Amino acid sequence: MQNNVLDYLNESLDRVPDKIAYADDDVQLSFSDVKNIMDSVGTHLLNMGCNHEPVIVFMKKSPNTIATFFGVINAGCYYVPIDSEMPATRINLILENCKPRVIICDESTLEIAKGFDYQAEVLLFNDIVNTKPDEAALAQVRKKAIDTDPIYIVFTSGSTGVPKGVCACHRSVIDYIEQLSETLGFNEDTIFGNQTPLYFDACLKELYPTLKFGATTYLIPHSYFMFPVKLVEYINEHNINTVCWVVSALTMISAFATFDTVKPTTLRTIAFGSEVFPIKQFRLWREACPEAKFFNLYGPTEGTGMCCYYPVERDFADDEVIPVGFPFKNTQILLLKDDNTLAEPGEQGEICIRGTSVTLGYYNNPEKTREAYVQNPLNTAYPEIIYRTGDMGHINEYGELIFHSRKDFQIKHMGHRIELGEIEANVNLVPEIKLSGCIYAKEQGKIVLYYVGDITEGDLIKALKTKLPRYMLPNKVNRLEEMPFTANGKIDRVRLTKMFESR
Amino acid sequence: MEELLTILGDLHPEVDFTTAKDLVTGGILDSFDIVSLISEINEEFDVTIGAAELTPENFASAETIYALIKAKLDDED
């Protein structure tokens, strides 16, 4: 039985060693290139004595970065991707949480890494990529592999201002890749066009099926996502037939009437997720790509990528919501009510995940882990952990799961999962700030911040840029003389929402 | 031009748009900004910017964006 994600490479390496596995505009790696890099990086880490520990990969998005992830796994360690788009404060919190001994950089990040408060050994990719592979040592690590050992930690927004590191193991990722590949019909002819960053779990959808099938992934340069005609031309030029993108990347194309100028002619599988796809935009896509199959995907990072899917086949009215659908094979969704009993059909409950897809927990954070990774309340006979998503949903008349809303102040903005509390916590760290309240204007898709304090809007944004990643920066900032409060003395978000709507 | 600078300033109060010439290459505008920008330009100037006009060159600076708007307005006359 396969117990290590890297076993996926074996067959592809035998069959298509020279085929392109991962490529961007600068670098192309064949499957044998990937093998060489991961063996060199793995050997270098083993030579340093690394063993079952987190290794930070701080490199710009590139095929080399992907091969470095595999190198870390090859040494029996787990990769923690960070990115130069993350502000220094956030990176420091991540390093403090993981306490890594080693950071692997490329030329673009080396100087930044040397300036971190946290001290670790900084390695340059170019210096370690030609290490002579110690095949015996690597084989020894593989022989001892345990499929419940971690392979990565990715960080997600935390409401107290500290990001949480979701830690996933081989078994969960293998389970995910198997179910996803079967459902979406990936094979050796699949050509992926990757949109999502490498520092989230979203990129698992392309990274591992590429290894498994000997397929190809193109990393589409970020800037193309601002210029839809160029983006569609890129898809056609590279014969990309499969995309798994956030909804906002797809609607960016359709909303600008790009299809009047150029249509994607090669796409056959279009999967989307992380947000609701407005039906009007969805119809434009279906008209433009009549041969493509469309899938809505749903799942939190804690459930290893995605855990539910919905093939969009029937017609939807403008005001209808595309269902979250059905759990992947080997995953169960429990809808739990407040009293921890199951919701009846049509009744709302919290979406809880049961199965191998549930990740290990938040790294070095037992408190937060205990809140969300809980004993299945329906099972008192033996230990069984389920993950409580905090998402509310119900089962409709077709037996499909429908997402409703959040139980808390977590939002989805441009495909990113954000805790409004994390934004406020960072705003409140700015010395001039007395009070702050953050809301999300869903209709316009804007994060709106209100604050009281002796600082201009521009200076506040400047200060926030050193603390928050770009996608978490408020889109509108408004200074107030006084903050509205509820009768209980909490910041009145309903009032703030009304203030924004009537501005 | 004033109206455009107000729209841009609203998006990024920390940037001086009268001098910035690298809005795209400098990573000042991201795809989200472009989406908001187009819809606000549409409201303020009543011009619709199509996909074909969405190019890095047209969005390099406040000046180039304004030139695009003006060209579209002149077209309509």
TrEMBL record, chain B:
Q: Which Pfam families does the UniProt entry name for this protein?
A: PP-binding
The Carrier domain is annotated at 1-73
Which Gene3D superfamilies does the UniProt entry name for this protein? ACP-like
Per the record, the domain of life is Bacteria
Protein's name according to its UniProt entry: Acyl carrier protein
Provide the species name: Pseudobutyrivibrio ruminis
